[in-house]
Specification:
CATH topology of the largest domain: Immunoglobulin-like
Number of helices: 1
Structural class: alpha+beta
CATH class of the largest domain: Mainly Beta
CATH superfamily of the largest domain: PCu(A)C copper chaperone
Largest sheet: 10 strands, mixed
Strand content: 35-45%
Distance between the termini: 96 Å
Order of helices and strands: HEEEEEEEEEE
Helix content: 10-25%
Number of domains: 2
Length: 175
């Protein structure tokens, strides 16, 4: 009986220590999960809206992305690059006086919204994947891809692009 008491005390202490360690591990996991979920997603004050990737009529030709980029922050930002999921390369372009030219950087001032649209600023998407299609696959949701804009300080902003076919009623191009 004395022997049972002798072994029972260390066993209870070991059990209590094990349970305390498990509880600490659970708290650590919870804290890590909530920190990851609350992490920064984009540069504060920047928003991309109304994003559309317009697919070309002829396969192998580039597509074009259109959207509006708003800087509601207090400081100017400089856009230096773009990436579109499903395109090998993406470049910022501007059409002026009937000709198109690549733009290496674009400043967006505080409180300014810049619209990327046909006949002006746009992002050209080259070597498009065949997986990019304007067809609805599930009948309910719009086909989507993602654009990521890169700024001169290394910050990035990602947003969805609805995929549309050139010449469709939704694209506004009836040619």
């Amino acid at each position: 009986m004395i022997l049972n008491r002798f072994f029972r005390l260390p066993f209870l202490a070991l059990l209590a220590g094990t349970l305390a360690a498990c509880q600490q591990a659970d708290e650590t996991v919870d804290t890590a999960d909530s920190t990851a979920a609350a992490g920064p997603e984009a540069k504060p004050g920047l928003a991309l809206a109304d994003g559309v990737l317009l697919l070309p009529i002829v396969e192998g030709r580039p597509g074009a992305a259109y959207f509006s980029l708003e800087n509601s922050g207090d400081d100017p930002v400089t856009l230096v690059g773009a990436h579109i999921d499903g395109a090998t390369t993406a470049e910022i372009h501007e059409t002026r006086a009937g000709s198109m030219a690549k733009i290496d950087s674009l400043e967006v001032g505080p409180g300014q919204t810049i619209t990327f649209e046909r006949g002006g600023l746009h992002v050209m998407a080259f070597e498009l994947s065949s997986s990019l299609t304007a067809s609805r696959t599930d009948g309910d949701t719009e086909p989507m891809t993602e654009i990521t804009l890169t700024f001169s300080d290394g910050d990035k902003l990602s947003a969805p692009l609805t995929i549309e076919a050139m010449g469709s009623a939704a694209s506004g191009d009836s040619h």
